[in-house]
Design a protein that fits this description.
Keywords: Ligase. This is Putative glutamine synthetase. The protein is mostly helical and 272 residues long. It starts with a helix and ends with a helix. It has a 4-stranded mixed beta sheet with strand order 1-4-3-2, covered by helices on one side. The chain is 43% helix and 5% strand. Helix 1 packs antiparallel against helix 2, helix 2 runs antiparallel to helix 6 and helix 3 crosses helix 6. It is globular, with a radius of gyration of 20 Å. The chain contains 11 helices and 4 strands, in the order H-H-E-H-H-H-E-E-E-H-H-H-H-H-H.
């Protein structure tokens, strides 16, 4: 890779992934992956967007940051003055709408996991001790939580946002952003409250699994939750979409169940 090509490549990334409206951002993220693959192959490189390409190493995250902007250009997630008696200190600077949006994300996350983690490999990344969340959790600037809150006093008020850390690089950006908006806005419409306390400061990954509801540990488990009769996914996306998308994921794990992996061959070919 020449230095000139590398600098042009960095410029493309910067311009492609600047903040924009959700539908445009999904297009940009998808185009980014396509362009990286195309340029990589041209130069003898195979770019990898698997969630967990290597055993024993952290995976590839596909974090999504989201904020809501009012018609007059103000951040709808922040409040003018801190709340003197917030339910949790971490949300003192978060608006009522922002809290409701967060509550909607937390409640709906387990029911929509196939949209955030759509492949067999996705769940190899969502394990303890590798800086990937495995519970329904949140926290102020917390790198172990499934939802990371950025707000004053650690950031400017205009930068108030949520970073949803569950998706891997293998996720479809359109599905991810659709789920985030649908779940968050459900929280706003129903005026839901945040009932999950934030992860304590300094909470490491080995302890995070003991806090809150666990996320699905496999695609098969995720699809079962996604399709249950009272799933939040059915409420926000409708039965038709849920059944159709679940069918594609069921096909995926059926193929996996029939596959014979290199690991199995290495482990058993001489020992059984």
């Amino acid at each position: 890779m020449t230095q000139k090509w590398a600098m042009n490549y960095i410029s493309v990334i910067h311009k492609a992934l600047q903040c924009s409206e959700a539908k445009d951002m999904a297009d940009k993220a998808s185009l980014f992956k396509y362009v990286v693959k195309a340029y990589g192959i041209k130069h003898g490189i195979t770019p990898c967007f698997m969630a967990k390409p290597r055993y024993g190493l952290p995976g590839n995250g596909g974090y999504m940051n989201i904020s809501l902007i009012t018609a007059d250009g103000q951040n709808a997630f922040t409040r003018d003055t801190p709340d003197p008696s917030p339910p949790y200190p971490d949300v003192a600077h978060l608006s009522d709408l922002g809290r409701q949006f967060l509550a909607g994300l937390l409640i709906g996350l387990p029911d929509t996991m196939p949209l955030f983690a759509p492949t067999i490999n996705s769940y190899k990344r969502l394990v303890e001790d590798f800086w990937a969340p495995n519970t329904v959790s949140w926290g102020l600037e917390h790198g172990a939580a499934s939802i990371r809150l950025t707000t004053p006093p650690t950031a400017d008020a205009n930068a108030t946002r949520f970073e949803i850390r569950v998706p891997g690089a293998d996720a479809n950006p359109h599905f991810v952003l659709a789920a985030i908006v649908a779940l968050g806005w459900r929280g706003v419409e129903k005026k839901l409250e945040v009932s999950v306390p934030p992860l304590p400061k300094g909470e490491d990954m080995s302890g995070a699994s003991d806090k809150g509801v666990s996320l699905a540990k496999s695609l098969k488990e995720a699809v079962a939750t996604f399709t249950r009769p009272d799933s939040v996914a059915r409420e926000v996306f409708g039965d038709s979409f849920v059944e159709d998308f679940a069918g594609t994921r069921e096909h995926e794990f059926r193929l996996w169940e029939e596959a014979v992996t290199d690991w199995e061959v290495r482990r058993y070919i001489e020992t059984v």
